[in-house]
Each structure stands twice: as structure tokens, then as C-alpha cells.
Design brief:
Distance between the termini: 30 Å
Family: Belongs to the peptidase M17 family.
GO molecular function: manganese ion binding; metalloaminopeptidase activity
Protein name: Leucyl aminopeptidase
Largest sheet: 9 strands, mixed
Radius of gyration: 24 Å
Strand content: 15-25%
Number of strands: 19
CATH architecture of the largest domain: 3-Layer(aba) Sandwich
Keywords: Aminopeptidase, Hydrolase, Manganese, Protease
Helix content: 25-40%
Number of domains: 2
Number of helices: 16
CATH class of the largest domain: Alpha Beta
GO biological process, one term: proteolysis
């Protein structure tokens, strides 16, 4: 269960949030005994420092948490989250000069710091709880935390318990919680309903491939989210080496991210009409596997030569994007753990995105800063279009040469989009090492930036 802020009337102790630059002035305002204690313990408000403050009766009177200096703060995010693990049991309220987006981000970090993936092993959460800071919309921050919880849980669950069937169950459960409707096209019905690429990629898996759909909202602008739901990716007949296959339970990170984003949208009651599409498959090896040099016909009629069965994510997304564009939508967004090339370009911490809409790009970039959810715009570079045209078919799913792999994948997806307002996110979905509010494991990327951009992008 995602954490919530303590009740506003709950007894609490102060957590003084102090910047290094302001420490001397702040210490001068404290009682003499407390100032002496801070000096004796060596607290100087460095980033991540915590000092417990004793009362005159020997009981805990509060705590101080350091924010360090501006240069150190610029090198990270969720700075107070590290303090949460070092505080004793009790409820704390922040006393700080932070305001606006910076304060909301720190409040969110305090909730995210309590995340533990405990499905298979008991985990010990932090002891301290927190009140929502004055000026922060507690319901909104709690909704963001719950959305991130859902995304992390889905990614962290291994394919033995998160195959296409379980992903379908998770989407249906999400729909039920928020009064949405959900449906699925499964197995051979994919052929009858004209989803040939989803069927081809998933037909070798132990569970039938499927196209999942959820709808919510009766009025307002239309938003369509498409998430890659490859529940495990062996690489198919172009089998991945072992070290590359080790994290492939996270190859449904796009689906997990759009489901978390959808949960936040519904929990916050945004005035829009939401549609979520998830092609859910396993890319497995069997006698039914699709093969290199197969030529497949997509839902929109384009032919695709398969030059690497490990470039399967763009295939299943292609059918889903084509379906998305068969009805009017005001904004279409796809999210996928699509290419290693994106990680080479920007590393694991940044979510690169592609769009031809300059206004949408600006809104996403601005919202990402406020939401502590870093993104970076990449180009739909038209001169590279020839790289995805093999000659024997309309498209090549895996151009040779190794150059611009994330860009060519994005260009491939754009061929299946029949409307102008589109953005594609090529996310990693994984935190490779523990960081404040982000333990090693599955992580959401880009969803908060998208959520923050929606009011401007859709005129909400």
C-alpha cells in the first residue's frame, strides 16, 4: 500500500530543512543549548546530513536535515529522502524556506523513500512518517506516489508472475478501481481482428499474446497512451546473450509507466477522455517463433522485413499505434523500453523523447524540471528515414550499422502514426543503483513530466 502523509492534526516534531549557505544564520536563531549541540555533533547542513535535536527533558525535540549548497543540489534530486531513513519512529513536519515545485518534489521524495518491493521477501520500511508541508497539495503528491508504486511493482515482478495474463489482470484491476472499462483481444483473435505483428511476436510464448485496452472519462480532450508490454524478451531466434537477457523482466516498463500515469490521471480526476493500449507478449523461442528475413504485414498495411527478432518492441507497438490512430485523439503518447542506443546516448537517468510538436516539447521539458523527472528531446531526423527502408519491404525493423538506433526506432514508429500530435518516450525503466527515493530496481520515467504537461498541452 503506497504511503500517505500523516493526518494534519497528528502530533509531530519539527524537521528543520537547512541549506548550507544559510546554516550559520539559522543556528544563531536556535536556543543556546541546541546551537551548542549542533556544533558538538559537527552538523553543518551538508547535503544528506541529519542531526537529532534533544529537548531539555532528554526527549527528542526534532531533527535537522542538511540540503548542502546549490552546486551539490544541482547534482541530484529528492535530497530529503535520504534523511527519512535516518530518522527515528515518529511523525515529523517540515520547517523550511522551500516553496512551490521544489517543496512538492521533496515531499514526494519523502513518500517515495518508503517504497519496498516485498512480494517475495519481507522488507523493513523507514520508521518516520511525515505531514504534508504547508502549501503542498497532499492529495496530488499522494496520487503521484501511488502511481510510481504501481509502476515499480509491475516492473519488479519477474515474468514468472508477470506474464501477459498477469499484466492483463493488473490492467483490469486498475480499471475496476477507477470505474474504467477494459477489454482484451487474445491469441488467434489477434489475426481475425488484424493485429498481425502482435501475434507474430508473441505466438511462440507460453501465454497467448494479446492487445489490452482501457477507457476512462466521458468528456474533454482525448488522450491516448500506448505502452510496450513485452513481459520477457529472450531476443527470439536472435537470442540475447545472458548478460543482456538478465533484466528483460523490465521490458514491459512502457506498459507499467502508462498504467502508472493512467492511475494518476484517474485518481486526480483530470477532465479528459483517456484511452490506454498495451500489446502484451513474450518474445520467446519455439517452433512458432517468427524468423529473421520474414516479411510481415502490419495493421495499417505496411510491410516490414524482420532483420532482427530482438527488435520486437517496435513491431508490437506498430499495430497498437495504428489502432490508436483509427479514431480521433488530441494527443498520442507511446512509452517503451525500446533501445539500448537511448541508454548509450543519455544514460539510465534521463528519458529521451521524440515529437514534432515544439509546443509539446517545451511543455514536457518545463514540467520535467518541476516534477524532478528528467527528460531530453531527441530529433525525428528525416534524413535517416532511408535507413529503415530495406527495399524488399516498406520498412526494416533493425537497420544495420549501429548508428542512431534510438532515432531510427522512433522513425519506424512514426510511420504508424496518422495524426500530428505525437510523442514517443524511449525509457530505461530501471534504477541501476540505490539513490534517494529510488532503490535499485524498477522505476517510473517520464510519467510525471507528461502529467505536468497535460494541462497546457490539452487545454485542461
Amino acid at each position: 500500500m503506497p504511503p500517505r502523509f500523516a493526518a494534519p492534526d497528528a502530533p509531530s516534531l519539527p524537521l528543520h530543512v537547512v541549506e548550507e549557505e544559510a546554516f550559520a544564520d539559522w543556528r544563531a536563531t536556535r536556543p543556546a543549548a541546541e546551537a551548542a549541540w549542533l556544533t558538538a555533533t559537527g552538523f553543518a547542513a551538508g547535503l544528506g546530513e541529519v542531526a537529532l535535536l534533544p529537548g531539555t527533558d532528554g526527549a527528542l525535540a526534532g531533527a535537522a536535515a542538511g540540503l548542502g549548497n546549490a552546486a551539490r543540489r544541482a547534482r541530484g534530486r529528492f535530497h530529503l529522502a535520504g534523511a527519512a531513513a535516518r530518522l527515528p519512529e515518529g511523525v515529523f513536519h517540515m520547517e523550511t524556506d522551500l516553496a512551490g515545485a521544489a517543496l512538492e518534489a521533496e515531499a514526494l521524495g519523502l513518500l517515495l523513500a518508503s517504497y519496498r518491493f516485498d512480494r517475495y521477501r519481507a522488507q523493513t520500511p523507514p520508521k518516520a512518517g511525515f505531514k504534508a508541508p504547508a502549501g503542498v497539495d497532499a492529495a496530488r503528491v499522494e496520487a503521484l506516489a501511488a502511481a510510481e508504486w504501481l509502476t515499480r511493482d509491475l516492473i519488479n515482478t519477474p515474468a514468472s508472475d508477470m506474464g501477459p495474463e498477469a499484466l492483463e489482470d493488473a490492467l483490469f484491476a486498475l480499471a475496476a478501481r477507477h470505474g474504467a472499462t477494459a477489454s482484451a483481444v487474445r491469441g488467434e483473435d489477434l489475426i481475425a481482428r488484424n493485429f498481425p505483428l502482435i501475434h507474430a511476436v508473441g505466438r511462440a510464448g507460453p501465454q497467448a499474446p494479446r492487445l489490452l485496452e482501457m477507457r476512462w472519462g466521458e468528456a474533454g480532450p482525448r488522450l491516448t497512451l500506448v505502452g510496450k508490454g513485452v513481459c520477457f524478451d529472450t531476443g527470439g531466434l536472435n537470442l540475447k546473450p545472458g548478460e543482456s537477457m538478465g533484466l528483460m523482466k523490465k521490458d514491459m516498463g512502457g506498459a507499467a509507466s502508462v498504467m502508472g500515469l493512467a492511475q494518476a490521471i484517474m485518481a486526480l480526476g483530470l477532465p479528459l477522455r483517456l484511452r490506454v493500449l498495451i500489446p502484451a507478449v513474450e518474445n520467446s523461442v519455439s517452433s512458432a517463433s517468427f524468423r529473421p528475413q520474414d516479411i510481415l504485414r502490419a495493421r495499417n498495411g505496411l510491410s516490414v522485413e524482420v532483420n532482427n527478432t530482438d527488435a520486437e518492441g517496435r513491431l508490437v507497438l506498430a499495430d497498437a499505434l495504428a489502432l490508436a490512430c483509427e479514431e480521433e485523439t488530441d494527443l498520442l503518447i507511446s512509452m517503451a523500453t525500446l533501445t539500448g542506443a537511448a541508454r548509450v546516448a543519455v544514460g539510465p537517468d534521463i528519458a529521451p523523447f521524440y515529437t514534432d510538436d515544439d509546443g509539446l516539447a517545451a511543455a514536457l521539458t518545463s514540467a520535467a524540471t518541476d516534477a524532478a523527472d528528467p527528460v531530453w528531446r531527441m530529433p525525428f531526423h528525416a534524413p535517416y528515414e532511408t535507413m529503415i527502408e530495406p527495399g524488399i519491404a516498406d520498412l526494416d525493423n533493425a537497420p544495420r550499422g549501429g548508428f542512431a538506433g534510438s532515432i531510427t526506432a522512433a522513425l519506424f514508429l512514426r510511420r504508424f502514426v496518422a495524426q500530428a500530435r505525437y510523442a514517443h518516450f524511449d525509457i530505461y525503466g530501471w534504477q541501476p543503483a540505490d539513490a534517494p527515493a529510488r532503490p535499485k530496481g524498477g522505476v517510473g520515467q517520464g510519467a510525471r513530466a507528461i502529467l505536468g504537461a497535460l494541462p497546457g498541452a490539452l487545454g485542461l
